[in-house]
Design a protein that fits this description.
Belongs to the glycosyl hydrolases 36 family. It is an enzyme of class 2 (transferase). GO terms for molecular function: galactinol-sucrose galactosyltransferase activity. Its EC number is 2.4.1.82. This is galactinol--sucrose galactosyltransferase. The chain is built from 19 helices and 52 strands. By secondary structure, the chain is of the alpha+beta class. It folds into 4 domains: 167 residues, no CATH class; 178 residues, no CATH class; 331 residues, TIM Barrel (Alpha-Beta Barrel); 195 residues, no CATH class. The chain has an 8-stranded parallel β-sheet. A 7-stranded antiparallel β-sheet has the order 9-10-11-14-21-20-19, with no helix packed on it. The longest helix has 19 residues. The two termini are 61 Å apart.
């Protein structure tokens, strides 16, 4: 008879498929009856096994046999009490002696484990047989009788130690799906942290703790200190050999950047994500790395404390645990660093963030958020066009010049420069004048004098005009999280109701250890006018209700991370950030029709893991048109940062200039980003040859499904400075994948760590490889009958190749050059009809134009039906030449080349927005 058990309990105890028998002498079992290990849930006790003395599954006294790991809600009942007085027992582990492998207890016990001399230190196994599992079979609660055998302390100790040793040796058993699941579990044993069946950390101090996180492989690292403090730095050991890592760390207070390495000493301060890869023995991994094990370490929020990772000169990995308020102290970090492992880094990230969001409850995964509609429309931002000199006339000129050129913005951001502010520091020394720009304070909620005059009566008048005249659908206004850079002016009549006070930021040592920022230097010197957290919702609601009343659709909220430096007296950095963040989100929901919010300068984990509703966040530092050495860095920043940010937000890869020496480079990247596409051109200064590869005549864009991220084989390379690696970015559309290959080498260097010698840009030609398998989850869109063949179309070279999923295509690019590849699974309808839609091949992300693909067939013909946006040049792979092609029922001329490229034009309908064309491609049956 087999009784069922909870899978989670089995995984927690590591007992799959093992039968343990007692023995009075070597090799001769006392009993061949089934040994049943009962497991019960109970909060705040350790997992425990219960062994029936007489081997009977339905009667007899059960006593505790062994314990295994951890504390928390997913643990089990202390079974030293009568079961009849406890809640009904529902599940058990059953290992019949006749069906499971025999493991003699005395052969399992090491001499060092028992102190008993003469015990053989060997382990024998028979081949595993399948354990039949049934779930939820009820078990009667037995009567309570004390057995003489169970009173035998020596025998009880023997069994407990036997179970411990047996669990340690289970990895030698041939793997089964359940065994593999157990191997993936995170375990802290004798100072070693094991993840995915491999050692990740060695020599962990005894104060380090590990708590299971509810699913196999996931856990929380913590640590205990001798004394309470508002800031602790705990060592968790050294990185074991065989691992390489990629870090996302804050190189300055506002922004993250990637770094790669191998030893723990090089892990930067303020690391907020550490992704590690182990390939095991040399040469054991496939070329594409599919057999690698990936470990994820995410320092998270734990109560009022926030964690970050860093290396030490002693090659130790540490986590910093801080509240940001000297009055908020603790001795223990319980859930400080989340750990998980898997064989797919992107799946690992997604599953980990989803699990964390459920455990913590302070943020949500992007799939659980409302996505703002403006992301599907081309936009224009006023910042680089005017900076703080933005004005109504300039805004209208910019909108008109873009519209007349065929790239009409439907989304507008009126950036910094529209608010009523004051500079209190006009009389300071000239050497400090530059810093005072960031110390200006907000004095009123309404627009300043530039937006009130003869040409523009008020902000509402301007917004009404640009929507009616220029077809703008969404207008966003910029403001800082605290009102303005320097907060609000406490003496202002309009601000007094919010109980503001002047506070002076105090940065974490982690921030100061990396790159200092001029804005923070200014705020530390001149202070910030911070609104009482209990009044912050009132402030946001007043401001947003006014903006909504004059036609504004949403806001871009900047300078968010400054809050982490102002936690003193407010319960700490996490508490004050969360209060502001949730008040902001509630005000957005109250005053705007959609979730129309862009978060900016918000790359601390305080904000990231407090984002319940916020759905869009800037992915990197600003696009800087006058800094030639920062252009390639920008693409690397946004792609790598999107690995983490893309699971919680739609990453905003920032504006760029269409008329710029790097316009193609930036434009191609934005097409793959999965986020918004917008420029900050000066009025009349545009390159429409670039814009028309991104924007359709109705102002819509072809947005990909997910956040664009580096391909798996790029995750642990340095795409900016190693002199040999291309940066490849992948994404998915409805019916195809897309990969962008970028040569970021030679044009710049990482801004941190700071180099003593000025960098001199050079040109480097890099050759690499691309494969359809670089597109993760391509199988999702290919369908069950997919043979693995793909059509690969290169945008710039206009070349078409037919490749199997794991075949490689050579790519060679010079510095600052890029190529975009559309990868479409080939569907076989018959021997003669093999077809793969490409989309609009005159657009960077051609596959984003495809809405639907289907087919019909009869005895005489097969017809492929495609719904495609337009206008533009439609392309597809077709193994044979079709008989005819129709667009909305009208037969059109088409071309078909030897490599299989089928192409024809989709016209532009000027009568309405949003061209959608019904395409029919007919093949006669031979």
């Amino acid at each position: 008879m087999f009784l069922g058990f909870r899978a989670s309990a089995a995984q927690a105890l590591g007992l799959s498929g093992l039968n343990i028998t007692t023995s009075s002498s070597y090799g001769r079992p006392l009993s061949t009856k089934p040994i049943v290990f009962y497991v019960h849930r109970h909060r705040y006790t350790a997992p425990q096994l219960v062994w029936p003395v007489n081997g009977d599954a339905c009667s007899g006294h059960r006593r505790r046999l062994a314990t295994a790991g951890g504390r928390g809600p997913e643990t089990f009942r202390d079974c030293s009490r009568p079961l009849s007085s406890s809640p009904p027992l529902q599940h058990a582990f059953v290992f019949p002696a006749s069906h499971a492998p025999q493991v003699n207890i005395l052969e399992l016990i090491h001499t060092r484990g028992t102190g008993t001399a003469g015990v053989p230190r060997r382990l024998s196994y028979m081949a595993l047989t399948r354990l039949v599992i049934m779930s939820s079979l009820p078990l009667p609660s037995p009567s309570y009788k004390m057995s003489r055998c169970c009173r035998d302390r020596g025998r009880r100790l023997l069994l407990r130690r036997a179970m411990s040793v047996a669990s340690d040796h289970l990895s030698t058993v041939a793997p089964t799906p359940r065994r593999q699941q157990q191997q993936m579990m995170a375990r802290l044993e004798h100072g070693s942290l094991l993840v995915g069946g491999r050692e990740l950390l060695a020599r962990a101090p005894p104060n380090v703790t590990l708590r299971p996180a509810g699913v196999p492989g996931a856990a929380f690292l913590g640590a205990r200190a001798a004394e309470p403090s508002s800031r602790h730095v705990f060592s968790v050991g050294t990185l074991a050999s065989g691992w390489r890592w990629m870090s996302l760390f804050r190189f300055k207070i506002w922004w993250m950047a990637p770094a790669t390495g191998a030893g723990a000493a090089a892990v930067p301060a303020e690391t907020q994500m550490l992704l590690l890869e182990s390939r095991g023995e040399a040469g054991s991994a496939a070329a594409e790395g599919r057999s690698a094990v990936y470990a994820l370490m995410l320092p998270v929020l734990d109560g009022d404390f926030r964690a970050s990772l860093q290396g030490s000169p002693q090659n130790e990995l540490q986590f910093c645990f801080e509240s940001g308020d000297p009055e908020v102290q603790t001795m223990e970090a319980v859930d400080a660093v989340f750990i998980n492992s898997g064989d797919n880094p992107f799946k690992l990230m997604k599953e980990s963030i989803k699990l964390l969001s459920k455990i913590k409850g302070t943020f949500r995964h992007i799939e659980d958020k409302e996505i703002p509609a403006n992301l599907d429309w081309f936009g224009w931002c006023t910042w680089d066009a005017f900076y703080k000199a933005v004005n109504p006339t300039g805004i209208e000129e910019g909108l008109q010049s873009l519209r007349e050129g065929g790239a009409p913005p439907r989304f507008l951001i009126i950036d910094d420069g529209w608010q009523e502010t004051v500079d209190e520091f006009k009389e300071v020394d000239e050497t400090l004048r530059e810093q005072t720009v960031f110390a200006q304070r907000l004095t009123d909620l309404k627009e300043n004098h530039k937006f009130r005059g003869e040409t523009c009566k008020n902000l509402g008048d301007l917004i009404k005009k640009i929507k009616e005249k220029h077809g703008v659908k969404f207008v966003y206004m910029w403001h800082a999280l605290l009102g303005y850079w320097g907060g609000v002016l406490a003496t202002s009549d309009a601000m007094k109701k919010y109980s503001p006070k002047l506070a002076y930021p105090v940065q974490s040592p982690g921030n100061v250890a990396n790159l200092r920022d001029i804005a923070m230097d200014s705020l530390e010197k001149f202070g910030v006018g911070i609104i009482d957290p209990d009044k912050i919702y009132e402030f946001y609601n007043d401001q947003h209700s006014y903006l909504s009343s004059v036609g504004v659709d949403g806001v871009k909220v900047d300078v968010q991370n400054v809050l982490e430096t102002l936690g003193h007296g407010f319960g700490g950095r996490v508490a004050v950030t969360r209060k502001y963040q949730h008040a902001l989100e509630d005000s957005i929901a109250q005053n705007f029709k959609r979730n129309n919010l862009i978060c900016c300068m918000s790359h601390n984990s305080d904000s990231i893991f407090s984002a319940l509703k916020s759905a869009v966040a800037r992915a990197s530092e600003d696009f800087m048109p006058r800094e030639p050495t920062l252009q390639t860095l920008h693409i690397a920043y946004v792609a790598f940062n999107s690995i983490l940010l893309g699971e919680i937000f739609i990453p905003d890869w920032d504006m760029f200039h269409s008329k710029h020496e790097t316009a193609e480079f930036h434009g191609a990247a934005r097409a793959l980003s999965g986020g918004g596409v917008y420029v900050s051109d000066k009025p009349g200064v545009h390159d429409f040859s670039v814009l028309k590869k991104l924007v359709l005549p109705d102002g819509s864009i072809l947005r990909a499904r997910y956040a664009g991220r580096p391909t798996r084989d790029c995750l642990f390379n340095d795409p900016v400075m190693d002199g040999k690696s291309l940066l490849k970015i992948w994404n998915l559309n409805n019916f195809s994948g897309v990969i962008g290959a970028f040569n970021c080498q030679g044009a710049g260097q990482w801004v941190w760590p700071v180099k003593d010698i000025a960098y001199v840009p050079t040109s480097i030609n890099i050759t690499g490889h691309l494969s359809p398998s670089d597109v993760e989850s391509l199988d999702e869109i290919a369908g069950d009958s997919w043979s693995g063949e793909t059509a690969v179309y290169a945008f710039n070279s206009c070349s078409l190749s037919r490749l199997q999923k794991h075949q490689n295509l050579e790519v060679s690019l010079s510095t600052m050059a890029c190529e975009i590849y559309t990868i479409s699974p080939i569907k076989v309808f018959s021997e003669a009809v093999q077809f793969a839609p490409l989309g609009l091949i005159n657009m960077f992300n051609s596959g984003g134009a495809l809405d639907d693909v289907s087919s019909t067939a009869d005895s005489s013909a097969t017809t492929i039906h495609v719904r495609c946006r337009g206008p533009g040049r439609f392309g597809a792979y077709s193994a044979t030449r079709p008989e005819l092609c129709r667009v909305d029922g009208q037969q059109v001329e088409f071309s078909h080349t030897e490599d299989g490229l089928l192409a024809f034009d989709l016209p532009h309908r000027s009568s309405h927005d949003g061209d959608r064309w019904h395409i029919e491609i007919l093949y006669r049956t031979l």
